[in-house]
Amino acid sequence: MGLLEIARLIIEKDNIAVVTHVAPDGDAVGCTLAMVEGLRSLGKNAVVISRDRAPDNLTFLKLYDEYTGTSPKIPKEAGLLIALDCGNLDRLSLDLDSVGTVPVINIDHHMSNDMYGIENHVDTKASATAEIVYRLLGLMGVTITKSIAESLYAGIVADCGSFSFESTTGETHIIAKELMETGIDFPMIHRILFKTRDFARLKLMGKALQSLEERMDGFVTFMYLNAEDFNSLSISDRDSGDIVNYGLESKTCDVSVLLKEAEGFFRVSIRTKSLLDARAICEAFGGGGHVRAAGGNIKAADVEDAKRQILMIVERMLPDGRCD
Amino acid sequence: MGLLEIARLIIEKDNIAVVTHVAPDGDAVGCTLAMVEGLRSLGKNAVVISRDRAPDNLTFLKLYDEYTGTSPKIPKEAGLLIALDCGNLDRLSLDLDSVGTVPVINIDHHMSNDMYGIENHVDTKASATAEIVYRLLGLMGVTITKSIAESLYAGIVADCGSFSFESTTGETHIIAKELMETGIDFPMIHRILFKTRDFARLKLMGKALQSLEERMDGFVTFMYLNAEDFNSLSISDRDSGDIVNYGLESKTCDVSVLLKEAEGFFRVSIRTKSLLDARAICEAFGGGGHVRAAGGNIKAADVEDAKRQILMIVERMLPDGRCD
């Protein structure tokens, strides 16, 4: 359905719930909060539905406190559920039982969208769902205030990697310009999204980079973090964030591998630059993921054994049988 | 002088030399090569003047090989010198003697420009000189080819930090959109400019981050690299690049300090986030620089003594006498 028809449908309703996907990221939270704020500016009763917490670096968004992760049920009075940035019903951050007969409008930019709404608007050319929401709010007659613009700008730059990903279009830049004109502190948003870490995570990055080694003439890099690295920094979730990306910064590297010690196995994160398929590498030991980012668990006697196994997989995939 | 008049002046000439500042960065090289390529497309004889090498990560630019650092003299037949992105005559990357009576057109975006040209166009609102050159080439009737667009796009994103710096404007985004429409591989440009390092420099970053420590409740962070850190990685120039910026990523940090062991003293690099003036801190021990980025050499018995001295300066600068 076209965006103008979607706008008309929404405007007819007074009580509207808005939801996004589980494990919400910058785009998910940004476009959800912008939509709720926009609906309220039109005098509507709008609520955020969520059963997951928003990332805590987004506290600067005006309605952040309403994204609590503790409101998974759609209120009885709701006449419409707007689902944003989510490819299928099962991944919505809510209690599915509470949807009942409430009509769902599905607005998304992901290729793999199940078209689960009573009406669907899936624009795969948009770099972020926040781009679509920006256009939609305009069609609904919402004035884009500074706080709405902050939510949308955060969503867009989070999803397009500060205009560096292939998904960025001319339209992305036009919208960025229009959002900037509301007076948002966009350098602050970039700093918070891309240049802010916990002290402990910076130290963890140091430990990982210290372990960095090249194999196959630098085509593959390995980093390794053991249990003690996490324990000594009191990082309990074993989350290594974007550290694996740094291996890829090495000029010659096409395959960056981060290994994390676990109980009887190793967790593997792989990123590839342009030649090899990260998912195919990981599927070879039972993992999965995407072409450029994948992972899984590997059984190995020790970390050197894990590296050997991965190198063998990589060598098999190279057409010219390149080796160390 | 307005840009249209500048365009008219340039179009009258047939032999044109183009130069930028010493220690050229992405914007300097990008706008210089774009200008030369644009002039040639109009049938003019245009040459790059340089006595410094261009950064070697810019080899992807079509005319990179003409930026040799070995052509510091303006040819006798030149009827015009276009000086780009350079605030004063002394910083031009050429033999000043060779300028003689050749008229100089000075095109720049720096606040501190001496207006040294016979004609000057200094637009401090432009995020990069490449922005101005883009507009100028358009006024001269140059078709923006893909290779010209690559040079200009590289210049712009290098100078505006991928659209994150305060200097970014709506105009920056509009130009980015127009350049993208020529079909440039902009994700590659971002990757080369912001996500590519030598393997040894990644290891050096690991060493620095390993040494990271917080003081004054995390308000100040210190990193330290000794001579052995550089020697073991065969990094002879003692260049630590952007490593000092990583200290600033810590949430609580306002002052990031990187200390490098030298012969009888320590080299200091300081970055500040928002509260303190990095230059003022460095001036207190004889250094200098800018508000957010400064440096200098400090005499100290050992690295702990250097840290103590810097902490004392920082504490003096805090209005509330905050301390460790």
UniProtKB/TrEMBL annotation, chains A, B:
InterPro entries: DDH_dom, DHH_sf, DHHA1_dom, Oligoribo/pAp-PDE_c-di-AMP_PDE. Residues 234-311 form the DHHA1 domain. Residues 15-156 form the DDH domain. Pfam families: DHH, DHHA1. Coiled coil: none annotated. GO terms for molecular function: nucleic acid binding. This is 1-pyrroline-5-carboxylate dehydrogenase. It comes from Youngiibacter fragilis 232.1.
